[in-house]
Amino acid sequence: MRDALRAALDEGTAAEAARDRVLVQFAAALEDAEEAPLVWLALAATAWEAGRLDDATRNRALGVIARGEGMARWQEAGLGPRRQAELARLAERLQSPQKAAVPIRKKRGFISAWAVGEIIGFRQDSGKRLALHVVGHTAGEVGAFAVVNLLDWISDSAPPDAADLADARPILFPPEWDLSLPKSADLCLTLTRRMEREDRFARWGLHRAPEQRGPFDETSVSYVGPALFDRDIVGKWRAER
């Protein structure tokens, strides 16, 4: 969302025309009750940072915050208070005077440091460890993010040895789970370089050949952040098998 608006502005498109172009691009997300609030929040935040926030977009984003639109997923994940605090900071920023319009410089594409086939450890807030199998990377203007499968493995300690993970298969996300994301088992983990280096992620030095399906693009993968993996997905998966 942010990159789409910045790309439009980088081309010299006027602020409102850039906004309208992005809204057309994300028309499908705007039809989704959980995705639409994220579009408006990201659009308003990015426009404010660029000194190009219009009143209509500001008011729409502030309305999203005031009405608590899209909060259900955060409450279910136990992240409601943290999300509310972040939205309060955003509302304060959007209502403050914005700086003058700044030049938009095209961002250098992100390239994930994780190798295809690598198994990455993830530490949940609870302290339990999960295993993410890197099966590929996306390719596009934004960069190359890691595409991962969550494996059917969970432990109180880490790292595991290769034998522990030998029979751990990818967890498929049935639509009835209502995670607002399942297109396939492939999840594009959108992380910054700093986030990849956070201590909740661990490069265990374990590898195995992925079951490549590809192509890994927006029609076949679901774009997620690390908060998804703080859910008890492994427990739910095992209970329903």
What would you note in describing this structure?
The chain is of the alpha/beta class and about 240 residues long. Helices cover about 35% and strands about 15% of the residues. It is built from 10 helices and 8 strands. It has helices spanning about 1-10, 15-25, 25-30, 35-50, 55-65, 70-75, 80-95, 160-165, 195, 235-240; strands at about 110, 120-125, 130-135, 145, 145-155, 185-190, 200-205, 220-225. The strands form 2 sheets. Strands 7-2-3-5-6-8 form a 6-stranded mixed sheet. A two-stranded parallel sheet has the order 1-4. Strand 2 (about 120-125) and strand 3 form a beta hairpin. Helix 1 (about 1-10) crosses helix 2, helix 4 packs across helix 5 and helix 5 runs antiparallel to helix 7 (about 80-95). The relative contact order is 0.12. The mean pLDDT is about 80.
In short:
With 241 residues, this protein is of the alpha/beta class. The chain has helices spanning 2-10, 15-25, 27-30, 35-49, 55-67, 72-76, 80-94, 162-165, 193-196, 233-240; strands spanning 110-111, 118-123, 129-137, 143-144, 146-155, 187-189, 201-207, 222-224.
Assign the structural class, choosing from mainly alpha, mainly beta, alpha/beta, alpha+beta, or little secondary structure.
Answer: alpha/beta
Q: Compute the average pLDDT.
A: 82
Q: What helical percentage do the residues reach?
A: 25-40%
Main β sheet profile = 6 strands, mixed
Strand content: 15-25%
According to DSSP, the number of beta strands is: 8
User: What is the molecular shape?
Assistant: globular
Using only CA atoms, what is the Rg? Answer: 19 Å
Number of helices: 10
Order of helices and strands: HHHHHHHEEEEEHEHEEH
- The unreliable regions are none
Q: Number of folding domains? A: 2
Distance between the termini: 36 Å
Strands ordered across the widest β-sheet: 7-2-3-5-6-8
